[in-house]
Amino acid sequence: MATEKMIKALNNQLFREFQSEYIYISMEAYFASQNLDGFANFFNVQAQEERAHAYKIFNYIHRIGGKVELQSIPQPKIDFESPKEVIQLALEHEKFITKSIHDILALAIEEKDYTTSAFLQWYINEQAEEEESMEKILNKIKLLKEDPAGILMLDSELAKRVFVPIPTE
Ligand SMILES: [Fe+2]
Ligand SMILES: [Fe+2]
């Protein structure tokens, strides 16, 4: 049985996933304004994934008889210097989310809440993938040294990303 403390921690993570969605939409807007439609597509898909991460928690809270309590989402950063800055910030954000998931898992273990521990395992794996994909893009940008032709090539590559629905039940 999940404790009140655990439901609160899950609601906080629910908030962070929706906040991630919002942050990535803001990054999408920056790239769209720069006519880098491939990067914009990448962040559009990223935002959709975050929404799915949120709904997975939303459904889990209900499944264990908890109450979903939404929080207000602060305005995300809306001005960026360069593609490199955006990707760097996105990577930092993913690392912050990984830590957040690790903290809830630690709480679940402490409370001997093995059902929630099992539920969180999916997020542990997902975060490893998220960090890896962001790190790969950042490394490519570093290699390019912001060379415009290279950025355009990377843009065409990122245009290919499609949203694959995540089971949220
Ligand atoms: Fe997420
Ligand atoms: Fe993420």
UniProtKB/TrEMBL annotation:
GO terms for biological process: intracellular iron ion homeostasis; iron ion transport. Pfam families: Ferritin (PF00210). Fe cation binds at E17, E50, H53, E94, Q127. It is found in: Cytoplasm. It comes from the Bacteria. The keyword Iron applies. GO terms for cellular component: cytosol. It catalyses: 4 Fe(2+) + O2 + 6 H2O = 4 iron(III) oxide-hydroxide + 12 H(+). Keywords: Cytoplasm, Iron, Iron storage, Metal-binding, Oxidoreductase. Its EC number is 1.16.3.2. GO terms for molecular function: ferric iron binding; ferrous iron binding; ferroxidase activity; identical protein binding. Residues 1-145 form the Ferritin-like diiron domain. Iron-storage protein. PANTHER family: BACTERIAL NON-HEME FERRITIN, FERRITIN. Belongs to the ferritin family. Prokaryotic subfamily. This is Ferritin.
